[in-house]
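Question: Now follow the chain.
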Amino acid sequence: MLDILRRIVQEVSSATDISDALKVVVARIREAMRTEVCSVYLYDPESQRYVLMATEGLKQEAVGRVSLSSSQGLVGLVGSREEPINVDNAPEHPKFHFLSETGEDPFLSFLGVPIIHHKRLMGVMVVQQRDSRQFDQSEEAFLVTMSAQLAGVIAHAEATGNILEIPPSAEKKKKRTRFAGAPGAPGVGLGQAFVISPAADLSGVVDKPAESIEDEIERFETALEAARREIRILGKKLSSELNPEEMALFDVYLNMLDDQALGAEVRARIVDGNWADGALRQVVMQYVGHFQMMEDVYLRERASDIIDLGTRILAHLQGHDEVPEYEFPADTILVSEELTPAMLGEVPAEKLRGLISVKGSSNSHVAILARAMGIPTVMGVVDVPYAQLHGLELIVDGYRGHIYSSPNDELRDQYQSIYDEEQALQEDLEGLRNMPAETTDGHRMPLWVNTGLITDAVRSLERGAEGVGLYRTEVPFMMKDRFPSETEQLQIYRQQLEAFAPNPVTMRTLDVGGDKALTYFPINEANPFLGWRGIRVTLDHPEIFLLQVRAMIKASEGLDNLRIMLPMITSVGEVDDALHLVYRAYAEVVEEGYSVTMPKVGVMIEVPAAVYQIRELGSRVDFLSVGSNDLTQYLLAVDRNNPRVADLYQAFHPAVLSALKMIADVGAEIGCPVSVCGELAGNPLGAVLLMAMGYDMLSMNATNLPKVKSVLRGVSREWSEQLLAEVIKLESAPVVTATLQLALEEAGFARIIGPSLRT
């Protein structure tokens, strides 16, 4: 059966359209299972009917014309149960429904399996036979496997508008399809898909002897310099949109093109006798192979940077000497298999409405730039047939990580309304910038921000931030091709501290590993999220930790607004070891003559182990800060950047809420300030609950701060505590979310919570 299945899958994959694919499926399955009938019924959610769309064994004229309601017949039973139905005498079954148009009267045996894609019912596949026969388990398993394969084919067809329609449909609403990825940058974008592809194909280059080594080296040098020039041009196009720290991403590209890096290795291959094109392919693919074998998401994404540079050099080798000039639509949604910063630079900023990348995560270079530029972005949309999207109308939902192709009028209007609401709301919230987040009964809730780039500081101050609850020091590390020196770090940290002075700035010590890695410090592990990351790395490398803490403390001279935070703490031993190093760094800085104050030191609560050691941890440090994103992931065993399980990431899961309340309760008991610096703090629903739990401060992305402030200023703390008492007893995240949303809507905040939650 496996060989048969493989052949069917290959044949289906090569089909030109969905109609041909369905014809192949029903014909080959009928043959493989030695049955007399195989049919596919597709479910139309708007009419709530199953429509016969392909068959072998029934009347062909019935295709596209015969349908069943969602509750009708054995087909409807398969769909409603979402499980196989296997009977040896179908007419005797109470759910049997006779369809004379199909000619199915003589068939007794029936086996039907649902066609499901990402929890969505797409149709039913059926095999039938005249004789009374109970299909065995292997046959049932084969059909289930085949239906799973077909589900992906149908989903792809929907995305391109290449799905079969029910004939009488002049007034029928246009179908739309949703694909799930990971949020890359928040916001809503509506526009037209523009699919961009590499300028050349490295994989198609063959090896051949160099006729003249000198000539080939000269060709390569010329192409290399042209690629450098191209990157500079693309970077210049973005220079007005980005600050120097973000522009450093283009410096990374240029460093890769350095004569002593990629260039030197290609020249060596040419000297060995290969022509320039082949030598380039060998070197690039060698690098790519190394990166792609790594488990770390960030390192795999650096492989795409190498490929992008390699193809650009190859394009110049092949005679394409200019940066391509595309005619982009006024409302461009840029789509690619792997978006790169250089691709982003090819689109005029005023025309760019959204970004979609099939590969990549929220930590990719292009996602970092997108957030800096305020472009709605979805990454890792693994199931979308990107090559067939060109010219289609798309909606990008950067809040949820969803994209919609060929949206109907209702959906388009809904998202247009969300976009308009967002714009209007931002204008209305500007007036709150200099007002405190104080409840109607006088409770003051400090609102801080999470930062990583210098532009974050600018935006944060514009929105009335009172401090920084999390400065991600790994961001400048990730933008370098080596560890930044103490002097370089000092300059970066000083910028942040000065920007917010006299307000406090909480700097997290280097937090790499998991989904964050450094190209020059690779961490290759089978399970990186449970491996060498966070404080574990820096305690094993005290030279890195000490240098960073020294730079932080020196940068705080004369400002005295530094707080240091330790990530990924799982035991008191780690805190003791880290504190020893912090005090040592402080003493060294003082010895050098700096007039500095010992900064407050805190720990991040990100793993379940830390939750149950709050009392012990809190007695050792000055403050505690909950990293709600990682804590939720570890509590629920869900990677929220994995689109296949991202919907299981539930910030309002009862287990998460219970853990958060316990942390706040113990913190208050021992007199240790407790804050939250995850996305939950920036969600108006979450902020209300966290305030009720007793958290002393909330830290969030700058874009969310005005909304949170508006809600907190419009409610009383007593009201929030009553709401908490109600939801803490609930047993499921969807019920908690619905209860919170309803409560805030009734309190007059439907407009505030709408854009991010009501779609």
About this structure: Confidence is low (pLDDT under 50) at residues 165-176, 755-759. The domain at 177-196+326-423 is CATH 3.50.30.10 (Glucose Oxidase; domain 1). The first helix runs from residue 2 to 13. The longest strand covers residues 120-129.
